[in-house]
Amino acid sequence: MNNAITNKIILEIRAGAGGDEAAIFAGDLARMYQKYAAKHGWKFTILDFNQTSLDGYKTFIAGINNSEEDLYEIFKNESGVHRVQRIPKTEKTGRIHTSTASVAIIPEIEPKEIQINNNDLEISFFRSSGPGGQNVNKVETAVRILHKPTGLVVASQAGRSQYKNRETAMSILRAKIYEQKQIEEQKNLGTLRREQIGTADRSEKIRTYNFPQDRITDHRIGKKFHNIEEILNGNLDPIIKAFKKA
Fold first, then answer.
1. CA–CA separation, 102 and 197 (whole Å)
2. The pairing of beta strand 80-86 with beta strand 207-210
3. Secondary structure of the chain in the HEC alphabet?
4. Which of 31, 49, 73, 169 lies 20 to 30 A from 59 at CA?
5. CA nearest 63: which of 13, 114, 135, 3?
6. Nearest to 52 by CA among 101, 3, 1
7. Residues of the chain below pLDDT 50
């Protein structure tokens, strides 16, 4: 990462271990970041999603941007596996479950920084879908792109036109290719760290949201925060500021 201000980022959230509850938790995280962005007046654009019932997401990708602040610097410590401990909406016996969702923060890359050969792309179109796979469009406006040299696959279905979704998917693709190049460079220097999202296993956690004790613990800086509902409502500043002081 260079020293320039990165005021455009891509947020990627994926449900991990825990089935339906993991997807619900991924949805909670997506709304938390959306509300946090709204509180600061940043533009938050949903780029792609795979939604489930009960307001959950198997995957959720969004773009966040503003004109002045370094969003990558603000959000970079959100990358990793988030773990939740609570009684799920789907639990009938009152038993506490442990589930996970992974978060990746990637800087959005300008087209001039990453050159992509059109011959390396395999582009397909499909219908956008809503909760439970229900079709919400009668035409194939959603776009899926395979980058054959790297095997990366990206998609976008939030826009209303093929053109808009193709541009969005290309933006996601550039960011992911850039991230892959950064990882390769770190590997060549012998400083490769674990990829941001890991395997989303319960043990690979950076932060735990313990609802019965109303406590969030960030395991990297050893700090605890209370008022989970307030934080999930977009009041992330206490955690963001704690990292600045760490």
1. 5
2. parallel
3. CCCCCCCEEEEEEEECCCCHHHHHHHHHHHHHHHHHHHHCCCEEEEEEEEECCCCCEEEEEEEEECCCCCHHHHHHHHCEEEEEEECCCCCCCCCCEEEEEEEEEEECCCHHHCCCCHHHEEEEEECCECHHHCECCCCCCEEEEEECCCCEEEEECCCCCHHHHHHHHHHHHHHHHHHHHHHHHHHHCCCCCCCCCCCCCCCCCCEEEECCCCEEEECCCCEEEECHHHHHCCCCHHHHHHHHHC
4. 73
5. 13
6. 101
7. 1-3, 131-135, 192-197, 200
Cβ atoms within 10 Å of 11's Cβ, excluding its own: 25
Read off the amino acid at residue 196. Q
Structural domains in the chain plus CATH codes: 8-110+194-245 (3.30.70.1660), 112-188 (3.30.160.20)
Contact status, residue 36 vs residue 2, Cβ threshold 8 Å: no
pLDDT of residue 128: 74
The pairing of beta strand 207-210 with beta strand 215-218: antiparallel
According to the model, what pLDDT value does residue 184 have?
76
Tokens of 140: 């194939």
The one-letter code for the residue type at 174 is R
Task: Please state, as a whole number, how many other Cβ atoms lie within 10 Å of the Cβ of residue 23.
Answer: 26
* Contact indicator for 2, 187 with CB cutoff of 8 Å: no
**Buried/exposed code over 78-115 (b: 16+ C-beta within 10 A; e: otherwise):** bbbbbbbbbebeeeeeeeebbbbbbbbbbbbbeeeeee
Rounded Cα gap, residues 11 and 227, in angstroms: 24
